[in-house]
Give the backbone structure.
Amino acid sequence: MREEFEKLVSAGKLTKQHIEPLVVLTQNGYCYHRSWGFGKITTVDTVFSRFTIDFQTKAGHNMDLAFAAESLKPIDPNHILARKVADLEGLRQMAALHHLDLIKVVLQSYGGKATIDQIQQVLVPDVIRDDWKKWWEVAKRELKKDGHFQLPVKKTDPIVFEMQETTLQDRLMTEFRATKGLKAKVGSALEALKVFPDIADKKAVAEEIVAALNADIASHQRTQPGVALEGIFVRDDIKEAAGLAGIPEELTPTTIWTQQPKLGAFLETIPAAKHRRVLQSFKAGNPETWVETVLMTLALVPAKLAGELAHLLIEDGKLQQLKDVLAKLISQHQASSELLLWLAKERSDSFADILGPEVFRAMLTAMERDQFNERKSNRLRDCIIDDQDLLVELIGSADLEIIKDLTRALQLSPSFDDMDKRSLLARIVKTYPAVQSLISGEATKQDSTLLVSWESLERRKDEYNEVVQKKIPANSKEIAIARSYGDLRENHEYKAAKEMQKILMRRKSELESMLVRARGTDFANPKTDVVSIGTRVTATDMSNETPESYCIMGAWDSEPEKGIISYLTPVAQSFINHKVGEEVEYEMEGIKRKLRIDSIEAVKTA
């Protein structure tokens, strides 16, 4: 094509500077434009002096040769973009079988180096159609073992392909020697530890790394004890992997703990993945005081870390001590929002006796206290709003007066906006309808006072205590036992126990609603000039002249066989406030009856 382009130069359609770029473009067959991206040259037309190019977003585009020579970048046929067009299926097979060959193609396409993001962008989703993260983890392990690839410490730095192979051992030690500071050395040593089985001379590598770490651990033990402890951990792991013996003068975890760092602040300087090992180390280094220190730290750390501390105590058989401290912090409103957040998410049966209305009250206090905290977090508030069952479960064991008190506290709390408050109050009302009037400010028919005899009031209280103190706790144990059987979808015992829980909670709510309205009385000295509560009425059925007698008593009194009826019944309601000689009517089950009042007298009570 060079001769053709030279003819176009002679004809004045091109300049000499255009010839070489056009020859390369024609030979390669692929190009790149800064606006239209990658393209394939499909036609070279020297008659009309133009290329026809299929760009990714602009197929069949005609471009003047002079403009093409100045604006297009030639792309080699071996470039990953060109190979995706020419042999996509081949690349997919390479991705499945030869990870490093594919990465090599990508790196060489971009001058021997590319970042992880660049590699992902060019391969996903065309070449790698499945889980990229899983694919990359496998590929990364292979890259670390291969001597041609140099992996960066930072993810944003490029991976470099080198033609001359470097042994894994040499590369690891070169990287380790280049690190500055103990934190960087710990990271590099951890990377070496991951591929330690593939290192040829493990002892030599371990001895050099251990010596360097020991030097920096000694200089960091007071200024950066957290980093020093991490260094001790990785040093000991490398010694174990290489079979090295300990050195008498080297520092141990106990050395760090003897400096008495504050546990909470110390843990926050350590990566979360290492918290468990740090806590085990702390426990071993402080056998006499670790329990007390851990308990004191619970309210000072984030929720996840509070969970780690709690599980450390539980695993050592200190559950009761943990519960005692939690109960104290909750009752004194000293529990932090993060500790309460952990407890809300945990909600296991082990803490059933702690999880009650006081926890929700403590949550409100903690969130209000956080309003003045520079490190304010809304995580507890969000948990209360998002967890549909949390609030109802916490107040489920409370009596109605406590629930009303909590409802008032929620209404006044500055921790929730109006919309969130309405949502939370609606959850309370759904379970405890009796608080509706408190929220709406309206008195409902259900709020009217109930006059009851002392005997029936005691019976209702006994039933309430039976439900709350015996039946509900017994049901909670049944649920816990049934849950332990596994697979809740096919667990009939669990389903039955949960259904009984609904029945018991409904009955508890009904009893609370009735008891809060009840007013006990002995019905002494009732009015007898008219029928009233506490009177005996003698009447005659007008249809057959049959005499009848009724004792009109309290709302919960009912012994029809003895003539004792509640004042709320239709019969009693028809009699009340009527005098001797008056006739009354009432309807029951569709049948109307007419009675004449013959006498009214006070019921004799013992």
